[in-house]
Amino acid sequence: MRKTLSFLLTATVLCACGGSNSNSPTDATNAPSAISSECKEFLDGYEKYVDDYIQLLKDYKSNPTDLSLMQRATTMAEDAKTWGDKAAPDCKDASEFMSRQMTIQAKLTKASFSL
């Protein structure tokens, strides 16, 4: 069940944060290299969310019969959808934004499969 829960939340987060709604081309000449303070705040919040989820996985591993963990997992799964809507489209074109987002995703994936 833990691996199923991990997979579902990871897939939800990946889908919620992927892709751009922008209709403009995304070649290297159009992509800004630095991120705005709004984008940085988004990434800081998203990383905190991922850290909280990793803690949920650890808590589940140490006490899988704790029913409060299912409520936390449900709430976090609902919150995952909002992360894709929070990022401004210009954030998704910034290479620094994408790099940090991929680092956060890698941390989540590694934690999900190492527990």
Helix content: over 70%
What low-confidence regions span 5 or more consecutive residues with pLDDT below 50?
4-9, 11-29
Query: How many domain units?
Result: 1
Approximately what portion of the residues adopt beta-strand conformation? under 5%
Biggest sheet overview: none
Distance between the termini: 12 Å
Concise summary:
This protein is mainly α and 115 residues long. It has four helices and no strands.
Account of the protein in words:
By secondary structure, this protein is mostly helical. It has one domain. The protein is built from 4 helices and no strands. It has helices at 2-17, 37-62, 68-86, 95-114. The chain is elongated, with a radius of gyration of 15 Å.
What labels would you give this structure?
single chain; 115 residues; mainly alpha; 4 helices; 0% strand; elongated
